[in-house]
Amino acid sequence: MFDVAIIGCGPVGALAANLLGREGLNVVVLEKELTHYPLPRAVHLDHEMMRLFQSAGVLERVLPDMVDTDGHLHVGASAQAIRYMGTVGMPRPFGWSNDWFFYQPELEEHLRAGFADMPNVDFRKGAEFTALDQSDGPVRITYTQGGAQHQVAARWAIACDGSRSPVRKALGIRLDDLDFEEPWLVVDAEVDGQVAFPDIAGVPEQADLQRLSVMMCDPRRPATIVPGRGNHRRWELMLLPHEDDAAMMAPEKVAELLAPYIGDVPHKIVRSATYRFHGLVAEQWQAGNVFLAGDAAHQTPPFFGQGMCHGCRDVANLWWKMAAIIKDHASPEILCTYQSERDPHVRGVIGAAVAAGRYICELDPVKAAARDAEMIARAQAQKGKQETAHDLIPAISTGIIHRGSAGAGERFIQPVLNDGRKLDDLTGGGWRLFTLEDAAALPDGGAVSAWLAARGAEAVMIRPDHYVFGTGTAEELRKAYAAQMGLSLETAA
């Protein structure tokens, strides 16, 4: 019997296989397709995912095929900047740029290569899930492969099988509709030159439009233009009422829509497809020993590029808890904190994306003009307080944290060290405890010492997924950690 069965090997499932495999857990990965999906779907990750790639040991594989960019710009109906979330000149407290773009087929290939040589990870391609049963304890998964029916058993299963999740449907889990659904056309292209933009007023001097995700909040047709790695570019264009999906995907229509941005620049359309941007969250993330992750658990409007990030956070949350149960004999009950930690987190970010989507998708010119005036006034009132996308990510407010202590649930910083490495490269992963004395010895320019001083703390304990467990004295934190993990103090030490 395996420790974990992962159903679906897109980027989220593949990251889970790497994280769990590095811990030495016995993992089986079931993927219905024989090869990874050949076209780009997700394109954006943030600094937190780069840090997870560090933890998973795949950073050197993925980094050469990624590009960091400079944030987000929202442009109003009269070509006026109404919201700037740029990162040029801003500090990078987590060690990485906030916004990274990639080409999904390359990323999937690199992530799969990361666990390919792990003897404890069994990757079964062409294995299509059909049913599961956990009436006698283990999760027994039935799947078809090569025209025959097979079964595999695992202590736990993680369903990373996408928005239409057969596992979620087999479990009868419903989705909570957050009342956002808009039709958009997504076009990916290889562009051998710069994208053209109209003259936009109010763009900060340091901003480079070629390195920003630019959201044109134009009531005539809202559109997003995002950069990519190499010459890859993406357009997301809202479909207007009564427009037909098939007609809008026709090559001549796509050429017409992209003409203002591309003109005569040589380019090749890689794909065009229509989507319904949704805000959906599963009502139940855990059923017995089966856990939903990624799009199987939630769907996020893409306005801040957090869809895949959510899925990576999901499996990172499960990874260290499953490892602690298997390796350290922690209480299995710690897995019951999965939904209580992740659900509010996801809903908070989806709420921000839906709120942005509502003003972005405004098609009434009068209301759009009023929106622009209000947002410009708000930006002017906050002069000097530059907003970035990572400000949208809330802290964990419940679950395995030392509640009430300063900084509990925040993402912990990852300063760049004096020798150019990052903090995790020095300390490794797992649980980490920094006291004031430890912090003073770190070659980090005083960053961790300053973090502790800002919170009036003697020590900080960090979870393996890089969220702060809590602050206090070292002894207080060890006791709280042992109690919440179901460990004896001697074992926890």
From TrEMBL:
<protein>
    <submittedName>
        <fullName>Bifunctional 3-(3-hydroxy-phenyl)propionate/3-hydroxycinnamic acid hydroxylase</fullName>
        <ecNumber>1.14.13.127</ecNumber>
    </submittedName>
</protein>
<keyword id="KW-0560">Oxidoreductase</keyword>
<feature type="domain" description="FAD-binding">
    <location>
        <begin position="2"/>
        <end position="350"/>
    </location>
</feature>
<dbReference type="InterPro" id="IPR050631">
    <property type="entry name" value="PheA/TfdB_FAD_monoxygenase"/>
</dbReference>
<dbReference type="GO" id="GO:0008688">
    <property type="term" value="F:3-(3-hydroxyphenyl)propionate hydroxylase activity"/>
</dbReference>
<dbReference type="InterPro" id="IPR036188">
    <property type="entry name" value="FAD/NAD-bd_sf"/>
</dbReference>
<dbReference type="InterPro" id="IPR002938">
    <property type="entry name" value="FAD-bd"/>
</dbReference>
<dbReference type="Pfam" id="PF01494">
    <property type="entry name" value="FAD_binding_3"/>
</dbReference>
